[in-house]
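A quick aside before the break. I want you to see a complete sequence-to-structure record at least once, exactly as it would be stored in a machine-readable document. Don't worry about memorizing anything.
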Amino acid sequence: RETQCSLASLVRLLGSSRLQSARSIDLSHQRALVTDALLADLRLSSTAVMSIDLRGCMKITNDGIAALAGRCAMLRELHLEGTSVDSAGIEAVASTCPKLACLHLRDCSNVDDGAAAVVAARLADIACLDLSGTLVTDEGIACVVEKRSALKVLKLENCKEVTKAWVAETLVGQNPEVDISFSSFRFHRGHRRRFRFHRGHRH
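That is the input. The structure line, written in tokens, reads:
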């Protein structure tokens, strides 16, 4: 009964006229109920929505993400943590949301260098990118950092295919303007472009 009530409330919300002018949409609290069909039924204003949170919505696929992104041309921030999105889904987002500045892909097990390549090629305004817990490698990260000059925050925690030595010796040294977190360590710019390397809290 509780699930039925929650679903009914969610359906009413998705059909509500309030969504026509909503700037931020958070469906993460109803993650067990969110599906591609529900995303397709969202009534949104393509110029109003700036932020969407779908973290943990494990029932959605690239199709649902693409359908939603296609109606959010001005989207600036997208949370997809823990979803099944892959490079095809990121491609769909990039093609319809060119102004996206913050993309959160933590623990997306299908995200790899292919997805990183899409970010590098298509998302010119990307400033904050969380690839923690994904399958990206040194090569994919290097491609993003090289091509995306707007990047300011890069999260690579628990990326088992990324080399710690490469991050410390190459990535950080060549990109002093980027705040980089990797595993339990965080690299950030200090005075006169010197770096401090210390243990920090996970984000």
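Two observations worth writing down. The radius of gyration is 18 Å. The CA atoms of residues 10 and 30 lie 8 Å apart. We'll return to this after the break.
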